[in-house]
Amino acid sequence: MATIKVKQVKSAINRPKRQKLTLQALGLKKLNQVVEHEANPAILGMVAKVSHMVEVIK
After folding, report:
1. Which residues contact 11 (CB under 8 A, 6 or more apart)?
2. In sequence order, which residues have a C-beta less than 8 Å from that of residue 33 and are 6 or more positions away?
3. At what angle do helices 41-49 and 17-26 cross, to 10 degrees?
């Protein structure tokens, strides 16, 4: 399967706990941090839930 890189571009401050936990599950801890994941449905669903705070780099 293909891999995607996910970059956090907005802060998690003043966001619902569920969104903070989703960022944590993706492995994002800091602003502008980039992590690489397999592009499976679970990861793509998490990225969709916090799409306003992250950017997908191909």
Report:
1. 31, 53
2. 7, 8
3. 140
Domains of the chain, residue spans:
3-57
Calpha distance 3→17 (Å, rounded) = 27
Instruction: Say whether pLDDT at 2 is over 80.
Output: yes
CATH class as words, domain 3-57: alpha beta
| pLDDT tens-digit map of 21-52 | 999 999 999 999 999 999 999 999 999 999 99
Kindly report the number of other CB atoms within 10 A of residue 13's CB atom. Answer: 6
Q: Pairing state of beta strands 54-57 and 34-38?
A: unpaired
Structure tokens at 4: 């995607």
